[in-house]
Amino acid sequence: MSTQIVQERMLIGGHWVHKNESIDVFDPGTGDLIATVPEATVEDVEFAIETAREGLQKSARLPVHERMRILQDAASYIESNQDVYVTTIVLESSKTIREARKEVKRCIETLRISAEEARRIEGETIPFSQMPGHENRVGYVYRFPVGIVAAITPFNDPLNLVAHKVGPAIAAGNAVIVKPATATPLSAIRLAEAFLHAGLPKEILSVVTGRGAQICDPLVEHEDVRFVSFTGGYETGKEITRKVGVKKTAMELGSNSPTIVLEDADLNEAVLSTVSGSFGVAGQNCIGVQRIFVHHGIYEAFLKQFITATKKLKVGLKTDESTDLGPLISEKEAKRVEGWIREAVKMGAKVKCGGKRTRAFLEPTVLTEVPKTATLAQYEVFGPVVIIESISSLIEGIERSNQTGYGLQAGIFTSKLEEAFEAIHQLQYGGVMINDSSDVRIDSMPFGGIKGSGIGREGVRYAIEAMTEQKVVAFKLKNAPFFYGD
What was the pLDDT predicted at 119? Predict the structure, then answer.
């Protein structure tokens, strides 16, 4: 893959914009400079919002079949140019080439689902005659676009998580302004190219590159922005909720997801699933497995198999087909995770394997006996680290799983239906995966959490519902309609 430095431009209202001030984009695996992107200013944000006002009028008036065509054509463009999108993801992010291919395929699927769901934005009739005095009224509810959508996206899925915001926004007839992660802006730019190629009216979509500290506040606080969709960390999400004012939001703020493994579980399947769920994308996954609670009857066997499988994982170059784990998004992040491990060890935790760091690369790490007060036990690590602990019962596993401020997804392995349903009802999470780790998602399902894990749900259909408003229409007639009787 080429590492030639490219001077990228950002997209504002259909215009490709260059700036004198720029932000460097690095390959986290090699540290090489691969591109620069414009460093947007507050004035750029205001221009993007100004053009989005025009874009909203055009988007809302697009016939549904035209929205569908644009989304399908954008998906087809990406499918025809998959190598470009895969290369972009590999260069700017932590993903291996195999992980990048999966993300591109999911992006294509997300856009196609968005096209299909555009035809299903439906209303309903209201029987006004249910209330005395309203016999001469008939009415209905229909959905209309919420307005300008601000989409703030993370680095760990730099293409598909952008598509999860842009696809539904366009399907619903909105205008959308994307602020991609500073570390991984290139995939969002490539996605915008696909939409322009598909014939999306130019004012509808903008991709504004820049530093969050400079441009996020004026974006989310602006009165003309009516919906803020944010995926990222809890503290940033909390700040956004304080600043947005009276407008709709959707936020996915991460987790430190648990998986419970009971004595009757399929041990081999549980190990295979949790190893994959713990270390995919070098652990930088909001539903990745961070805590595993294993029944004491199989704890030693599970731990031994898990460590054996973990040691087989290959850490290395992202472009190597045999690589399982690439780097973290930066050396700074790798050092942070390393620091959390060291803190836990000082508090009494045992490192069973891994733990060594080389620049931005960190070996997949397994710890036991981690105190409940350790940072690793309480917060989202967003790195290749998993805690494995022994439990005496399902009840203990549920209690320990719930001892967190997060609540995105959880998993449980058991062959007993009663145990599964007990976990379903008692685990305080937005999703519970049976005989799977917490790391399960398809792009059409409602995705989101409770407590500190966020507000609302993504997943195309559910995002469309959030990105539309309901309007009630009532007709008062001189005479009661025939269907109410004579």
Answer: 98
Average pLDDT of the segment spanning 422-438: 98
CATH number at residue 461: 3.40.605.10
Strand partners, 476: 137
Where are the strands (E) in 209-338, listed by range? 225-231, 248-252, 258-261, 291-295
- Residue 107 is among the residues annotated as catalytic for this protein: no
Tell me, yes or no, if 286 is annotated catalytic: yes
The three-state secondary structure class of 286 is coil
Cα(374)–Cα(377) distance, integer angstroms: 5
pLDDT at 483: 55
- Give the whole-angstrom CA distance, residue 485 versus residue 482: 6
Domain region containing 304: 258-434
Buried b / exposed e over 286-306, threshold 16 CB at 10 Å, is: bbbbbbbbbbeebbeebbebb
The residue from 8, 92, 193, 252 that is catalytic is 252
Other Cβ atoms closer than 10 A to 428: 17
Residues 265, 178 within the same domain: no
Q: Are residues 26 and 162 in the same domain?
A: yes
Determine the pLDDT at residue 188: 98
- Token pair, residue 360, equals 């931005």
Which tens digit of pLDDT belongs to each residue from 311-344?
Answer: 999 999 999 999 999 999 999 999 999 999 999 9
Same domain, 54 and 34: yes
CATH number for the domain that contains residue 393: 3.40.309.10
220 and 132 assigned to the same domain: yes
**pLDDT for residue 485:** 45
Residue 77 in domain: yes
| Interacting residues of 418 by C-beta distance below 8 A, sequence separation 6+ | none
Residue 383 falls within a domain, yes or no?
yes
Whether 281 and 192 share a structural domain:
no
**Start-end of H helices in 412-482:** 417-426, 460-466
Do 141 and 278 have their domain in common? no
For residue 444, tell me if it sits in a domain: no
Residues 152 and 92 in one domain: yes
Asked if residue 486 is part of any domain, the answer here is no
Selecting among 286, 419, 458, 465, the annotated active-site residue is 286
Cβ atoms of 450 and 429 within 8 Å: the answer is yes
User: Cα-Cα-Cα-Cα dihedral of 213, 218, 220, 223, to 10°?
Assistant: 170
pTM: 0.96
**Total domains, the chain:** 2
The residue whose two tokens read 């990228």 is 8
List, for residues 466-486, the tens digit of each pLDDT value.
Answer: 999 999 999 999 876 655 544
Per-residue model confidence as pLDDT tens digits over 154-209: 999 999 999 999 999 999 999 999 999 999 999 999 999 999 999 999 999 999 99
